[in-house]
Design goal:
By secondary structure, the protein is of the alpha/beta class. The protein has eleven helices and 15 strands.
Length: 363
Amino acid sequence: MGMRVIHVGTGSRGRHWLQIVRDYPEAISVAFVDKDPQALDEARKLVGQRPAQFYTDLNVALREVAADVALITSPSFLHAEHALDALDAGLTVLTEKPFATNLGDAYKVLRKAHAVGKHVVVAENYRFFSAERTVGQWIAENRLGRIATIMCVDRRNQPPSDQAPWVGNMVYPQLEEIAIHHFDSFRYLFHCNAVSMIARSFNPAGSPYASGAATEALIEMEGNLRILYFGTLTSHRYEYSLCIEGENGCLWTDQKRVWWRKKGARFFWPIKLVPVPKGDELPYPRGGTTSLLNQVRDAILYNKEGETSGRDNFWTLAMVATAIRSAEQACKVSVSEVVNLIAPGNGDTAFQPEIEQQSNAGE
């Protein structure tokens, strides 16, 4: 028997994960939890005759079912609560992003994981796309030379009805549900953390969202790198573009393919993508999920912290929090300023070195 998984949340993304875990040879689904009986019924149809238990109460499931992993795909505002419950029960956690909707709750989750000796893996699957790994390899090998400019544009035709009803009423849906992926991508690709940000959140004309369906940001990363970022949920089509200009030429990707134009050349030429674990090369909803499950397996078997651990992802959440603070205050905001707001004020520094260690990871 492989690692035993309790699925927390059986909405659309939860049902994707049901099928992904079913096809992963080293895992078995032992229980499904959702407060919505209709969502549980949809999961039952996919599970069929395979043995599994179904619950509307997570704490009951955690008491009654022997498991190794909680796979959290519930609404974002419940991720931290459900992660804390699972960690208290002694489970490793694989959670969809964000693993918390504010840095204070993220800090609580990390402290709990540290206290019980369990790992939190965040489902930042973009890092494991073939194109993403290819761009990352080129940058790591310094094939661009010194990087001069970085521009990222993400356009989506993604109304709330394609996600969940509560997303439409979020204050910052683009930042918290989508830009978080791109911010994590920047940290991976450029091997550094963000220093500061100037951001503006707005709602384009005709938006079906209550607010915040688009974001503009100028991001300063360590090493004096600057990224010009734009993202919207209300475009007419899906279109992603990341353009990185270095002293040796220009690298461009749409997250599916990668092109290179050598300095002085007229045309871009396609680059052969690097190999990735089987399944990671597939389109949504499966892209990158093999590596995520491999991280969970290694956390359980070898106590190994994954690439997209909660400790690492804290600094992606910090970028989102910094962007929100900048948008609210209409000024440049430093990441350290935002992170310092959640530092313990009661002299309890037992966990603080864990955060500080990660903050220096990109230096």
